[in-house]
Amino acid sequence: MRRLRGGAAAAVVLVFAVAGCKAETKTGSAGPRETGGGGAALTAAESLTVKGRAPKTGYSRERFGTAWADTDSNSCDTRDDILQRDLEGVRFSGGRCRVSYGVLESDPYSGKKVTYRRGASLVDIDHIVPLSDAWQKGAKYWDASKRIALANDPLNLIAVDSSTNRSKGDGDAATWLPPNKSYRCAYVAGQVAVKRKYQLWVTAAEKAAMEKVLRTCPGQRLPSGGNPTDAPARFRAD
Questions:
Q1: What is the pLDDT of residues 163-189, one digit of tens each?
Q2: CA torsion sign, 181 to 149 to 97 to 155?
Q3: DSSP secondary-structure letter at 52?
Q4: Interaxial angle between packed helices 184-198 and 144-151, expressed in degrees from 0 to 180 and rounded to the nearest 10
Q5: Nearest to 100 by CA among 89, 108, 92, 111
Q6: Which among 75, 72, 74, 78 has a CA at the least distance from the CA of 230?
Q7: pLDDT tens, 182-211?
Q8: What is the pTM of this model?
């Protein structure tokens, strides 16, 4: 079994392995979990730069590179890396990377149990800070390697219920929060961590919304870790 990266530090126990298919059971919840040394989320939110939202002109998904690029060079695409990190009872088909089955025991956004089967479209990999939001708050001015890094950084990615995620669109904390209120502190802390790491700004309304949530949980820590803020050289011409 390959060594899981980044936020996949939760304990993993191999249950069975057969040619082309295996299953794993692990402990922990979905999402980035490297919290040691991340600092207080509220303090970090208060330090974010405030500016107005720039126009969306010029944005497209392609400006952030090919979807799910293997920026960590582990020979698995980013989507399958996050599915393996966040799902329980993971099974693979066609090799060690292609996740074919798993369960979100408690979806962060809705709180419900969701079963993932490849091709069934019940689980999305969400950008905690949407790429179009990032584009309007600084990413428009970056070079390609930094945009590709953001789009594939495990710190900014989480497996969630697809139907709940579709209601989010490209909303920031001022316009959308998870219906699952028990996850809101962790969700906002995740957005703050990404915006601080990549030096993205926030609007005044967004910052106020972040601080309002985080004042209800002043002990909330920031997630940390993830990938470098520049993609490897082979992606820089994308």
A1: 999 999 999 999 999 999 999 999 999
A2: negative
A3: P
A4: 160
A5: 92
A6: 72
A7: 999 999 999 999 999 999 999 999 999 999
A8: 0.86
